[in-house]
Prior knowledge:
Distance between the termini: 51 Å
Order of helices and strands: EEEEEEEEEEEEEEEEEEEEEHEEEEHHEE
Oligomer: single chain
Structural class: mainly beta
Shape: globular
Amino acid sequence: MVDSQASIEHYLHGHSRAITDINFSAHHPDILATCAVDSYVHCWDLRHPSRAAMTFCDWFAGATQVKWNRQDSHILASSHDKTLRIWDDRKGAYPLRSIEAHATKIYGVDWNRTQPTKVVTCSLDKTIKFWDYSSDSNQPMRTINAPFPVWRARHTPFGAGLLAMPQRGDYSLHLYHRQESAESQQSDAMAMVHRFDGHEGQVKEFLWRARGSVQDSRDSRNFQLVSWGTDRMLRLHRVDDTLLAKVGHVRGQQVERTIPFTRRDAVYRSFRSDPATSTGDIRDSRTGGPFPLGLHQNIGMSGISIRKHFPIIGGEWGTGEYPLAPKAEKQARPRADIDAISWMKGVKIGKRGATQAGMEQSTSSVLSPALRPNLQWDTFDSLAEEITHLADTFSKVTFEDVRVPERSVS
């Protein structure tokens, strides 16, 4: 059996706190961006993974989302608390544009698929806002007032649609028409055109599948929506011509702008080999035995043969529902009791590199910051670190009660 570690090609070390989002460039397959609670946005080149190729920082608030522009390879956007920041990798570490976008923290950012200066944001304040960063105005182009806190809002790969995912209180996905015509009004005209129902728990993620291509500037692709929720169901939602027309898309219509394809000429591999025709012995990873023959059904947009050990709910072309495998019960591992000090010694907290006092940006605006040590910052990063240092220095001291949240030791 191949070691699981052998499949890891790169380790990217750069953040000092939890990473909140990653996003690959639509123009360069080796370029990706990451953001974290430490407020940094790192751009990585996988051909030189030892350090970040470029770094941006908000300095005041942690980052929640980072997205590369779909039309301009030099532009990316990141969200920091209520603020949207637009960055240009040719302009150094200073943001190209900063917008106070929402009343609460931003949890979704998505670039327009055809217009390079337009971006959409969403927040738990129940609003979805459309922006044009090339405009000097700090007011959104238009606003959707949703009946729920919005966790994600993304443009559809067809027409003028926008799909919104609630953060709580609603188990459906909501499709809106952006109505970018000159006659469109503000929020009142932003009507929801469709609901994708079916989940019995909160939807946690969704994506679009596309089959076909754009030839002679005509879009003849078929689309399918895939969603996953806390009910442990993976659902496939059908998108027919009637639904496409609701967001202004007609199959085979002329394409006005270039649509970037990140998997152009890639081999389609969304299938599994059928044991009835395969020469190898395909075994079930859950039972260790071979798959029973005949338990498969053609589903999806192109009749993909997918192995199943459960009934398919739905049966209509382009739709389906798949229960995910139940969670395995964790077995309690016997372990010796350890005190709080010993436990804290095993927790390693990476330190953020110190910068010169008053330094507002990195000394190198193209590569990662050239950080310089500052002896005035040589202090403990946390109470836990200070306690463990004290325990090592005075090894004979016994601590009876350690409460890190209350910052008390006795």
